[in-house]
Specification:
The complex is a heterodimer. Chain A is α/β, with parallel strands linked by helices. In chain A, helix 2 crosses helix 3, helix 3 crosses helix 4 and helix 6 packs across helix 8. Chain B is an all-alpha fold. Chain B is built from 11 helices and 2 strands; from the N terminus they run E-E-H-H-H-H-H-H-H-H-H-H-H. Classes of the chains: A alpha/beta, B mainly alpha. At the A-B interface, strand 7 and helix 2 of A face helix 7 and helix 8 of B. Bound molecules: adenosine-5'-triphosphate (ATP) and magnesium ion.
């Protein structure tokens, strides 16, 4: 196993990468609360990048700006080289509180993104069924969200995002409302999906272990106003047994290193 | 054991009151209170008379039209107020004034505006029913989880889809609660309207019965009205329970 590549400094970028999402000079304030200041960031195509930082540092804000759900005060977002300011079909969002329709079945919920985009019923249900299987929910198509556990509901949210075939998946603390056992299972599934689906994932979390476990790249944000304090690329071999990763020395060292960096912000 | 979905104790207590009524009636204390059995007999006779049947049709029609209008106007108005701050600030004050004002006092004004006829009754139903529908719809729209709206936007929902596929459904439990309360208020509206106009539907019947001291028929008509109001509220409650079930996970 190789060493973690560590890059310090706010704007320093690694060797040229094929960036699918480029964030340039993004700032955002809510009234007199400055949430983000001068964010410059590239998200490499096909990788899973985590945004990690203390509570309130603007992770959700940055993710929603990338999604086009929140307008930045300054700066630009480009996806596939094109500047965007609104939601678009090349991005799909997975919500912290799942954001499922309580009155619709799993099948309709998963197909809902396609429904909104005007796909015919038969076709969108076929696609939805495929992704319901893909996230391990086969057999639950006709259940309603309130009949599912938190972990299963988030799988519905993930299947919905996968169904629309976006290039970039934006996930805002998708596991925070999921119990510990399910979270571990879900993280493993996400690692598997990342390799099979050939998509770019941008993942917000405030769990260091989670970030190191699943990410190709971790962007550490400083507390408000959020700025980039560090970029870490934990090069962990994920083809091995998941339980071994958690005991891997390199994994544990990286977690420790990030903790040392973040410790100063915690009182 | 249950009868028609009601547990026996309630039926039993109702029975006690009927017996009490019967006894008071038999004692001949007041001309106002004939025995209950006589009222029942009057009710059976009453529903067979053409005058009751046509009064019922008139009443139901005025009620239905008034309710339909207040739902068709009230729900969109409530959604508008729930979504758009300006609309809420402009209309909020009036809606809350009207929803708690003694509206019976306004029925004579309606008579001046709409004349002594069905139009006034319809207007009375509308006036009584609409405000609670507006208020509950507004509350329902306000309570929609912001992430549901963001979800729709992030998947490219059109304005129309946002309202038709998300907002209307997410607020449905509150909208139905508003409609149920509106129906009960609408019954009040139709009764008060007819009593004041007194030449239409049940109002005309009440007028005849009370002027001629036909108390058994008077009470029979009252009981029929009460039963009607209860039935409507019960039906809507059933529907609500179903919707509540789907909305359970909110
Ligand atoms: N709609 C809003 N109105 C006002 N202030 C907001 C709004 N959204 C976020 N903020 C503020 O902006 C700052 C950043 O919020 P954000 O939700 O992006 O942080 P976060 O890193 O996602 O935090 P958490 O880990 O708690 O989810 C916080 O101080 C928050 O209070
Ligand atoms: Mg957040």
């Amino acid at each position: 196993m190789r060493n973690a590549t560590l890059r310090k400094g706010p704007t320093l970028m690694p060797e040229p990468v094929d960036a699918i999402v480029e964030v340039r000079g993004v700032s955002k304030s809510y009234g007199n609360v400055e949430a983000l200041r001068g964010i410059d960031l590239d998200f490499p195509r096909g990788k899973l990048t985590s945004l990690l930082g203390p509570s309130g540092c603007g992770k959700t804000t940055l993710l929603k700006i990338i999604a086009g759900l929140v307008n930045a005060d300054a700066g630009t977002i480009s996806v596939n080289g094109r500047t965007v300011s609104k939601p678009g079909p090349e991005r799909a969002f997975v919500f912290q509180d799942f954001a499922l329709l309580p009155w619709a079945t799993v099948l309709r919920n998963v197909a809902f993104g396609l429904e909104l985009r005007g796909k015919a019923a038969a076709e969108r249900e076929k696609i939805a069924r495929h992704y319901i299987g893909e996230v391990g929910l086969a057999g639950f198509e006709d259940k309603y969200p309130h009949e599912l556990s938190g972990g299963m509901r988030q799988r519905v949210g993930l299947a919905r995002a996968l169904s629309v075939d976006a290039d970039v998946l934006l996930l805002d603390e998708p596991f925070s409302a999921v119990d510990e056992q399910n979270r571990r299972k879900f993280q493993e599934d996400l690692i598997r999906l990342r390799t099979t689906q050939n998509k770019t994932f941008i993942f917000v979390t405030h769990s260091i272990e989670e970030a190191v476990y699943i990410s190709d790249r971790i962007v550490l944000l400083s507390p408000r106003p959020g700025r980039i304090s560090q970029i870490i690329e934990p090069e962990i071999d994920r083809s091995v047994d998941p339980d071994r990763i958690h005991r891997d020395k390199h994994y544990l060292d990286t977690v420790e290193e990030i903790w040392q960096g973040l410790k100063q912000y915690v009182d | 054991m249950t009868i028609f979905g009601y547990r026996i104790p309630m039926m039993a207590s109702l029975l006690v009151w009927c017996v009490a009524w019967e006894i008071v009636g038999r004692l001949d204390l007041m001309i106002m209170v004939p025995p209950f059995s006589e009222v029942l007999r009057a009710a059976v006779d009453l529903v067979q008379t053409p005058s009751w049947q046509s009064a019922t049709v008139t009443t139901l029609r005025a009620f239905a039209i008034g309710m339909a209008l207040s739902i068709v106007v009230g729900v969109p108005l409530g959604i508008l107020m729930g979504r758009i701050k300006l609309a809420d600030e402009l209309l909020g004050m009036w809606v809350s004034i009207f929803s708690s004002a003694p509206l019976s006092a306004l029925v004579p004004v309606l008579m001046i505006l709409f004349g002594f006829g069905e139009k006034t009754i319809i207007a009375a139903v509308f006036l009584f029913a609409i405000w609670i529908i507006v208020l509950d719809t507004r509350a329902g729209v306000r309570h929609i989880s912001p992430s549901l709206i963001e979800m729709a936007k992030s998947y490219g929902a059109t304005k129309r889809a946002l309202y038709v596929k998300i907002i209307l459904w997410a607020a449905l439990p509150e909208i139905l609660a508003g409609i149920r309360l509106g129906l009960i208020r609408g019954v009040k509206g139709v009764v008060i309207g007819q009593l004041l106009v007194a030449i239409v539907g049940y109002g005309a019947l009440f007028e005849t019965f009370s002027r001629n001291f036909r108390m058994a028929e008077f009470w029979a008509l009252t009981i029929i009205l009460f039963a009607f109001a209860l039935l409507i509220s019960e039906l809507i409650e059933r529907l609500e329970a179903k919707v509540e079930f789907y909305a359970g996970a909110r």
